[in-house]
Design brief:
single chain; mainly alpha; 17 helices
């Protein structure tokens, strides 16, 4: 039996198992497709929005601020690129997490590395392809809604937001490649050491040198605002770099928070949650990294509201300032939706990868409600730390641009708080999406 025949056989058996048992494969398959569909639809909307501003900037009646709109559109796209890639990777890892034990057994009974690689690549590529097709449909459905949001005094038309067949194909292919590559990277522990799947070995401790990335990015931001290098586009790029450093320092913070929570745990659910955070701080960060990125963006969106409604400006400048504020909140809304879906997908993958642990704890007498509370705390404890980290970094990178007195403005603080609450609420909703999985894996026969 070659690798393709084996893949087809495994998929058929998985579908049969999902129909006749409590196997959570059907839930995880749905979450994976939803994640890839969301990445595709939102990525196409972002690309279409940038193309629309580019199109308007080159029209005969373009305003004097048209190029500035384009610059802001690219900045928003750069800010959203990180959560989009993160969610695509999380969806691919969920595919591997669902099959890692079965793949490890195949490896132990003689399957070659090439066969295991082909099986995983086909799994991930198939899920990404189905999700991509659904995402293209979602993109067409979202175009009329995005067109209702006015920029430059009018909404976008379908033709302005349409990316064209070439870009559509490129984005679709990119999503499939992202899913396949992420799955193959996540497969390394099965291919290199199949026994490691059963042993559940802890990941090595993370180094404090990750904080150096934040320091370097902050220095770059100061240089961008205080020297002759200063330009709004360069400042925006440095802000996007600062956003990227969250993914470096975040896992290190998760490790510290997990150790702190474990040392003060007084209940079983808190102890279980904190130990899981310590065992895999990178996954703990991935489960809440979206809300941290949304919080970071919320800081910028809140500051942008200060530019709307300025007196003594021309009507064109007032419209530009209002549109910048609108664009900031649109970027935040997209980031919040991405955070919610990413959390749901990552949590599902985490439960699936720990299914043996859930089942043994349940057989040892731990109730499903306790296991569920532990899973919720696996999200809420890192989420509080992630929001705090993002708040600190957001303030750090905004101060060089707007000064320390910025956060003494009540309007900024109120809108910042509401924006963060919006993102946190969406993430909590995403956490509930994988609630059924705990019961399914704990009682799986």
């Amino acid at each position: 039996m070659n690798a393709i025949q084996l893949w087809w056989f495994m998929n058929r058996r998985t579908r049969e198992a999902a129909r006749h048992s409590k196997d959570p494969a059907s839930i995880t398959s749905l979450l994976t497709v939803v994640a890839f569909a969301s990445v595709t639809a939102l990525l196409l909307i972002v690309v279409g929005g940038i193309a629309a501003f580019e199109f308007r900037a080159h029209q005969p009646g373009a305003t004097s601020n048209s190029q500035s709109y384009v610059a802001f559109a690219y900045i928003a796209g750069a800010l959203l690129l990180v959560p989009l890639l993160t969610m695509g990777g999380a969806a691919a890892r969920l595919v591997v997490a669902r099959r890692d034990e079965r793949l490890a057994r195949l490896r132990l009974v003689g399957a070659t590395t090439a066969q295991i690689t082909v099986l995983s690549a086909l799994d991930a590529a198939t899920s990404a392809f189905i999700g991509m097709l659904c995402g293209v449909g979602g993109y067409f459905a979202l175009i009329p809604a995005i067109g209702l949001i006015p920029f430059e005094g009018r909404g976008f038309t379908f033709s302005e937001l349409w990316v064209g067949p070439a870009l559509l194909a490129a984005v679709g292919l990119g999503v499939i490649v992202l899913g396949t590559v992420s799955a193959l990277v996540g497969l390394q522990r099965v291919v290199v050491s199949p026994l490691g799947v059963a042993q559940r070995q802890s990941t090595p401790a993370l180094k404090a040198i990750r904080i150096l990335a934040v320091v370097l990015a902050f220095v770059g931001m100061v240089l961008a605002t205080k020297t002759s290098l200063a330009s709004f586009l360069f400042i925006g790029i440095m802000f996007a770099v600062g956003l990227g450093t969250l993914n470096l320092v975040g896992p290190f913070v998760m490790g510290i928070v997990g150790q702190f929570a474990a040392s003060r745990a007084k209940t079983l659910d808190v102890l279980l949650a904190s130990r899981r955070i310590i065992d895999d701080p990178k996954t703990a960060w991935r489960s809440v990294g979206g809300v941290a990125l949304a919080t970071f963006i919320a800081g910028l969106a809140s500051v942008m509201t200060l530019f709307s409604g300025y007196e003594g400006r021309t009507p064109e400048d007032v419209m530009f300032a209002t549109d910048i504020s609108t664009g900031g909140y649109l970027t935040l809304a997209i980031a919040g939706v991405l955070a919610a879906i990413s959390t749901g997908v990552t949590q599902a993958g985490r439960v699936i990868s720990q299914r043996e642990q859930y089942r043994f704890l349940h057989l040892a007498g731990t109730g499903v409600p306790t296991l569920e509370r532990a899973r919720i705390k696996e999200t809420t404890i890192p989420m509080i730390a992630a929001v705090g980290t993002a708040l600190a970094l957001s303030a750090l990178f905004l101060v060089p641009m707007f000064g320390a007195g910025l956060f003494q403005n009540p309007l900024v603080l109120v809108r910042f708080a509401v924006s963060v609450a919006f993102a946190v609420g969406l993430v909590l909703v995403g956490t509930l999406a994988s609630r059924r999985l705990v019961t399914a894996v704990a009682r799986l026969d």
